[in-house]
UniProtKB/TrEMBL annotation:
<protein>
    <submittedName>
        <fullName>Staufen double-stranded RNA binding protein 2</fullName>
    </submittedName>
</protein>
<dbReference type="GO" id="GO:0003729">
    <property type="term" value="F:mRNA binding"/>
</dbReference>
<dbReference type="InterPro" id="IPR051740">
    <property type="entry name" value="DRBM-containing_protein"/>
</dbReference>
<dbReference type="Pfam" id="PF00035">
    <property type="entry name" value="dsrm"/>
</dbReference>
<feature type="region of interest" description="Disordered">
    <location>
        <begin position="71"/>
        <end position="94"/>
    </location>
</feature>
<dbReference type="GO" id="GO:0010494">
    <property type="term" value="C:cytoplasmic stress granule"/>
</dbReference>
<dbReference type="GO" id="GO:0003725">
    <property type="term" value="F:double-stranded RNA binding"/>
</dbReference>
<dbReference type="GO" id="GO:0035418">
    <property type="term" value="P:protein localization to synapse"/>
</dbReference>
<dbReference type="GO" id="GO:0008298">
    <property type="term" value="P:intracellular mRNA localization"/>
</dbReference>
<feature type="domain" description="DRBM">
    <location>
        <begin position="8"/>
        <end position="75"/>
    </location>
</feature>
<dbReference type="GO" id="GO:0005886">
    <property type="term" value="C:plasma membrane"/>
</dbReference>
<dbReference type="GO" id="GO:0032839">
    <property type="term" value="C:dendrite cytoplasm"/>
</dbReference>
<dbReference type="InterPro" id="IPR014720">
    <property type="entry name" value="dsRBD_dom"/>
</dbReference>
<dbReference type="GO" id="GO:0098964">
    <property type="term" value="P:anterograde dendritic transport of messenger ribonucleoprotein complex"/>
</dbReference>
<keyword id="KW-0694">RNA-binding</keyword>
<dbReference type="GO" id="GO:0007281">
    <property type="term" value="P:germ cell development"/>
</dbReference>
<feature type="compositionally biased region" description="Polar residues">
    <location>
        <begin position="83"/>
        <end position="94"/>
    </location>
</feature>
Length: 141
């Protein structure tokens, strides 16, 4: 089974901010260096706390400052949920149908599926006798 994707520091900062009912604010402070190797300086504000960090791209600088904020923040942190376990405990999430097809192929037999209880057709006959409707007489008032 594939490993669940780990959350980025920016994602974790967003969760921390949401948990504390505040909005994270990233601010580009400066960019320096030649065009082929720029360095970006970014500031992150969470409530009254601020952190600064640098990176070779804005995204890398944001991730670095988010990582710094996660380790240094004094805000209450949300409880991390454990990763979901595989419900059916099949290795690699193989469904029973796929498993049955594989077994049938190994034995050289076709896997034939039929419904357990076929739906019965409705047993009614439409009444197309409209004569009664047209033979009604109206009594004069």
């Amino acid at each position: 089974m594939a490993k669940p994707k780990e959350k980025t520091p920016m994602c974790l900062v967003n969760e921390l901010a949401r948990f504390n009912s505040i909005q994270p604010q990233y601010k580009l402070l400066s960019e320096s260096g030649p065009a082929h190797s720029k360095m970006f300086s970014v500031q992150l504000s969470l409530g009254e706390q601020t952190w600064e960090s640098e990176g070779s791209s804005i995204k890398k600088a944001q991730q670095a400052v988010a990582n710094k904020a996660l380790t240094e923040s004094t805000l209450p942190k949300p409880v991390q949920k454990p990763p979901k376990s595989n419900v059916n405990n099949n290795p690699g999430s193989i469904t029973p149908t796929v498993e049955l097809n594989g077994l049938a192929m190994k034995r050289g037999e076709p896997a034939i599926y039929r419904p357990l209880d076929p739906k019965p057709f409705p047993n009614y006959r439409a009444n197309y006798n409209f004569r009664g409707m047209y033979n009604q007489r109206c009594s004069p008032v």
